[in-house]
Amino acid sequence: MMYYLIRTGGDYRFFPELMPWQWLGDIEDQRYRFLSVAQRRRSAFQLAALSREEPLDLLPLDLKHDLDGHLMKQFNAEAARVSAAVGRLMASYSFLCHPFIPCFSLRSALTVMKTDNAKGKWYSLGSDVNALFYLPHKLYRNPPSPKTALTRIMDHLTMTGQRFNPAYAAVLDSFADILEQRGPHWFCSEGECASQAFLRRLRTDDPQREVFEEYFREMYSRFSEAKEVKADEFLKVMQEKEKGHKAEAEVYTHWIMASNANETAKEEADQINSLYKSKQLQPLMDSNSVVVFNENGEKVNDPQLLVASFQAFEGLKEAISDAIKRVKTGSSSEKQ
User: Which domain of life does the protein's organism represent (predicted)?
Assistant: First the structure.
């Protein structure tokens, strides 16, 4: 079913009774690509720990009894992450704004201009949107293919010193590969815009449909009033947008970490606070039984700084939650 939905973008109610044999072969190919990565990692972990049993990455140990529940938890977690990312993009009118390309930094702007050798134009939606939007030349407005988009994400992670779990990266690669098999019109039908293609896939009774319809109306309204950024103003305006975006990104990252904190992390934080109150934390840090690093990778030897960071984290978490509640209830006098 998952393969059918990704491959066709169709409705689950039209799932075929007999799948084409090419699809069955491709399913096995994609499964092999994942297992070739996950099994190699499992083998390395087993040899290092001399363990008899070790689960594959992203899968439970008992596939027979725990697989369905485990996958459902993963799907729900992935859906929550995607929803958060979509909401983040919607806040700056960057979700499905094709043919405009949103840029939040000077580096991304320089990369984007390479698509048409800087023949396009830059636009700003106003001071409340921390992004500039590049409109490429008409000949260069085709959306990128799924594989190209994934390659750009991987390149960005590499350039910023980050990376995905190898097994998760293999899943993403298979996902993009299946999507690309739809052909050049993998998301939009010919002559259809991105917003229409997205709404076409939403059920009419979907509770979020009204939210997206309102977003698209507001997005088109803002772009109709967008102001062109001239070449002599571009650098200054882009630096201002980048500064504002970094501040937004820090708050968003903090909110994601706070909202997704698991019970184990909360218990460990409570244990650290308990050790600090009983004055047992300093000896543990001195003996390297507890090792702490700050965001710059520097070792922290003062337990008071560690506890203060916990308190600051919780304080900012509550402030963000209050701000979100005020926006949702309309009690805020200014849109956050």
Answer: Eukaryota
